[in-house]
Amino acid sequence: MQTFTKTDRFGRASLVGEAAALRWLAEAEADGGLHVARVVSASDTELVEERIVTGAATMDAARRAGAALAVTHAAGAPWWGCPPAGWFGAYRLDHSLTPTVEKHNAPSTWGAFYAEYRVMHYVRVLRDEGSYGAEEAAVFERLAGRLSDGAFDAPQPALVGARGHKVARLHGDLWAGNLLWDTSPDNTTGAALIDPMACGGHAETDLAMLDLFGCSHLDELLRGYNETSSLANGWRERISLHQVAPLLLHCVLFGGHYLWSALQVAKRYI
Questions:
Q1: 71: which of 33, 207, 210, 261 fits an S-S bond (Cβ 3.0–4.6 Å)?
Q2: pTM over 0.85, yes/no
Q3: pLDDT tens-digit profile of 17-46?
Q4: pLDDT tens digits for 43-97?
Q5: Is 70 left (phi over 0), alpha (psi -120 to 50) or beta?
Q6: CB atoms < 10 A from the CB of 10, how many?
Q7: The domain containing residue 189 runs over which residues?
Q8: Whole-angstrom distance, CA of residue 1 vs CA of residue 8
Q9: Which of 204, 216, 268 is nearest to 242 (CA)?
């Protein structure tokens, strides 16, 4: 097995947490979940993992990847915002933290979790640093209120519930760069996962992240997903809602046009 080594001498990443996330997601492989880069070793400053052999995306690979992602989500999680087994903390990207949630603090609904630990978490950072003023923050506060009231709560994809779970097992940062088209002969799932920020959440969040920045043959991936685990009515209308949090994270990291984009998307749901 070829390996790849990530290093972080300046505390900007959460490599032990990332290793725990990789192992947690890999638990679903036995049931047909997406392949996950194998962890060789991990410390606070270094993560050694399997190097994925990549190739060109195909429609067939995308369809298989979608089906396998549905199985990964259906492995479930014990509560909203829970961390991977064996680790607790916040995922760090440069100067931004994405928190996981301790069980005793876990909200009882997705909307309450998403409002407090994703949307308003980032908005408070942006308000404190002056990127958003009171008027902009008020838009997100109204959205958070609607989320907490359950206005957008929806069932998980069918397989999650069929496996007895209320909460899905998410990759958590599933943009196209973290879904590698795996061409190794022993991978039957079409793709492999790297660089997770895994937690318990709503499966639609991972799908929305793939849509946000574009993914090869996304329609085929979604077809494979929906054939394996049918998505709840109205899921397409909720895609942008699930994109508010990653947009806000990009506001924290990069500012610029993301500040306007996040605000405009939030306004659609208030």
A1: 33
A2: yes
A3: 999 999 999 999 999 999 999 999 999 889
A4: 988 999 999 989 999 999 999 999 999 999 999 999 999 999 999 999 988 788 9
A5: alpha
A6: 8
A7: 53-109+153-233
A8: 23
A9: 204
